[in-house]
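User: Teach me something about this protein's shape.
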Amino acid sequence: MIDRDGSRLHSSVLVAPKRERRRDRKARKLAARGLLARDRSEQKSAAKSKSDALVAERKATVLLPKAGEPGPAALRSPGRLRLPRHQDTSATLAGAYPFLAEGGLGSDGVFVGQDLYSGSSFVYDPWVLYARGLITAPNVVLAGIVGSGKSSLAKSLYTRSIPFGRRVYIPGDPKGEHTAVAEAVGGRAIALGHGMATRLNPLDEGHRPGGIDDAQWLAQVTARRRDLLGALAETVLDRRLSPLEHTAIDIALADVVRTAEVPVLPLVVDRLLEPDPATKPDGRLAEDGRLPGHALRRLVAGDLAGLFDGPSTVRFDPTLPMISLDLSRVTENATLVSVLMTCASAWMESALLDPNGGQRWVVYDEAWRLMSHPALLRRMDAHWRLARHYGIANMLVFHKLSDLENVGDSGSAMRALASSLLANAETRVVYRQESDQLGSTASALGLTGTEQSLLPTLGTGQGLWRIKHRSFVVQHQLHPAELKLFDTAGRMTVAPNAAAHLTEDTSGR
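Assistant: First, the predicted structure itself:
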């Protein structure tokens, strides 16, 4: 080959560099193979050394015999505990895992008994839970079949709250079972019955709260009296009053308040049946108020005569720890009991709705009698909705939650009011229920399948507590003195000769 300047170049000059590059590549490949081989050899050596060390350690380890060591150390297992693998949902495992339990409601409140799941003490106080933000409605619904222990629980809740400064009002006690309790705690039980000298005037002004002027107080008293007369008339007539009938009642009430020193029901009845001609001279007022007048006359001259037909012979003392109205002597039928409880609740309503009255329990026993009457149901609903404002915790006691389904027709206003009582109570305590009630109970409370199957197996004093979205199974515990005081089955357990002896002693006194 000839270069540009004419000189000749040897071919060996061009070929020699290529041979050198190939030799270099081969040398590098051989060196890389050598490095990889040495690395693998070192890894194998390290793995073998580690394996030999583990084998040596295993051989040097002394294991206990399968039967365990003799003597005090016997029965020790040398191997690991192996269980078959199980897969389930977190919801199921949360309840099945033995080392997890509900943390409880804390230690502030009234002792109720033992949490059967955690074994710890169970306490409850609606005012404490409301202050802590755990509930937003302080009302309680308590349901259970006869003999399950629900009455004892209700009495324990309110009596154990009294040392904490709470008071107890029972607007009507159809069976008289709260009378002995009221007397034992330093309260008072007012008994009403035919032939007794006790009178309650439901038109009394009642306890006047502090902080309101005369005009406000007069407006409150007038509204309460008007609502009472309308509720009584609707309960007896079993229907809503017409606007004409409301007008007749308003005019009669205003006339009685203006002319009488102490307004009483007989005067209102007289004004309804025989209105003052100067009030409405066209004569239509007597016709408008004829049916409400005869309905209210039942409280004056009918089967309830002698109970609410005169000035009050007893004074309502809101400072007492407990006040109960014993209606056991006049429990002829549900309508009469509802009328009595309407009058009784109106008599103490001014104290119930006093914002400065402190924290109070208001117990409605035998609620199945009350919810069948729209007027009384509306008054109860109003008290429940205003419970937080007035510092009241209402307690509704009945046998089964299906009683709510017997109130009015499906889709009616009464059914809606009855359902609202349950909705405005975030504490629901369910004692033992019959098998045919499980479906309705689970539907009303949103119970799980496990909770539903638990209800018919509960023993006496055992209840399922649903507090908002939390559940507890609690065994109610009674002090021996409480057990004797709260007993509602004494007549079923007293021997015949003992019962005859008690009768003779009572007649002798």
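Now, about its shape. The chain has two domains: 102-198+324-504, 202-313. Residues 9-16, 498-509 have pLDDT under 50 and may be disordered. If you'd like, I can walk through any region in more detail.
User: That's plenty for now, thanks!
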